[in-house]
Amino acid sequence: MIEMLQFDFMQRALVAAVLVGITAPAVGVYLVQRRQALMGDGIGHVALTGVGLGFLFQTSPVWMAVLVCVLGAVVMELVRSRGNQRGDIALAMLFYGGMACGKLLVSVSAQAGSGNLESYLWGSILTVGPGDLATIAVLAAVVVAVTFGLRRQLFAICQDEEFARVTGIPVRVLNLLLAVMAAVTVTVAMRVVGLLLVSALMVVPVAAAQQVTRSFRATQAAAVGLGITVAVLGVAGSYQADVPSGPAIVLLAIAAFALLGAVAGPLARRRHRAAPDSGPEVCDVVLPAQSAGREAGRTAEAPDREGASTGRNGRRESEPSAGRGLAQ
């Protein structure tokens, strides 16, 4: 472990892994909460067009991918919000069209080559340069600031959009902001785990953490901690075994999910025996009271702990405890 830290490229790789380990689960917890776990996969398809444009115009593929991903994510959110019956067809064309266009652009660019494209499809963390690391750090800082700074508002729209709208929360703006943050996260993680695997790092740590935690705040913290752990161990293990880092990170995350799943049942039974009459915990995310929904806000000032959410009529509705997921 100490030996590999002597190399500059490994130092950059580990820093990039930590940043991705933070950002991917931080956004993924909201996507899982609103049952959009595969959104990152779709954005990854669109990001390939940005990579192709970067190769074609000989500019930074990362920044071009950010621009294309943001546009694609906005289109995806607008299609979802309209609830059009043909929306799934439109999204499918967007996803596959983005991948096909990216491959075509890469093939006609001066930097054409399967090696260039492979590094973005499956990740190539050992080739992260100082400029790439600076870009990843800036984008990661933006994602962390939004996902943690607006946690109460984002939780509210993921839990119940109609109730959030009644309390005066700008639902449309926050939905678009969450989609943009997912797009930025995809571009942050594509050099580490690749566009084809980025969705796994956004979803699997969250799903694993949900099995042993009982609150939204704890789930987010545990998912981020797990994301950092598997990212760092995956990079270190891939260096020692001389295997690609992206698949190694994802397989470690899946192994962690299986391990926590094995202990989730006994842990839940132990908690039940320790406090059989305590009932479920309540939500630890306090929804912001807004002037437009002051009357509803007074009756729904809670939830202040995860496990109970406020229904649309202002009454508290109990949520299931750990192991059954926060999105149920």
TrEMBL record:
Q: Where is the composition biased (Basic and acidic residues)?
A: 295-307
Tell me which domain of life the UniProt entry assigns to the organism this sequence originates from.
Answer: Bacteria
The membrane-topology field of this record reads: Multi-pass membrane protein
Query: Main site of residence?
Result: membrane
**Sorted alphabetically, which InterPro entries does this protein's record hold?**
ABC_BtuC-like, ABC_TroCD
Query: Region (Disordered): which ranges?
Result: 273-328
Keywords per UniProt: Membrane, Transmembrane, Transmembrane helix, Transport
Q: Name the Pfam families on file.
A: ABC-3 (PF00950)
Q: Where in the cell is it found?
A: Cell membrane; Membrane
Q: Where are the transmembrane segments?
A: 12-31, 62-79, 91-113, 133-151, 163-182, 188-209, 221-241, 247-268
Q: Which family does it belong to?
A: Belongs to the ABC-3 integral membrane protein family.
Protein's recorded name: Metal ABC transporter permease
Q: Organism, per UniProt?
A: Kitasatospora arboriphila
